[in-house]
Automatic annotation (TrEMBL):
GO molecular function: nucleic acid binding
UniProt-listed Pfam families: rve_3
One GO process term, biological-process aspect: DNA integration
Organism of provenance: Amycolatopsis echigonensis
Start and end residues of each Integrase catalytic domain: 1-92
Protein name in UniProt: Transposase
Lineage: superkingdom: Bacteria
Gene3D superfamilies for this protein: Ribonuclease H-like superfamily/Ribonuclease H
Amino acid sequence: RGCQYTSAQFGDLAEDLDVRLSVGRKGQCWDNAVAESFFATIKKELIDRRGWPTRVAAHKAIFGYIEGWYNTRRLHSSLGYLSPNTYEATHRVA
């Protein structure tokens, strides 16, 4: 909810680029609960476990975590203890 996102200049630029802005309601943390949960998980399981010598190293580790673990092998209780990729494959409409 940073002030830069509510400025007239930012709004004008978004309009010029045909970008629709979406801002959650103030004080309504559950508006963004899925994203908040994901970032809390990645911080707990990866980011906060070590120091990162460079941003590039952190970016590579985050990409590897998401594509090599989180989406492919990590079991999610909200998905019936399936990985996101497995869940999506079993629920895909042909």
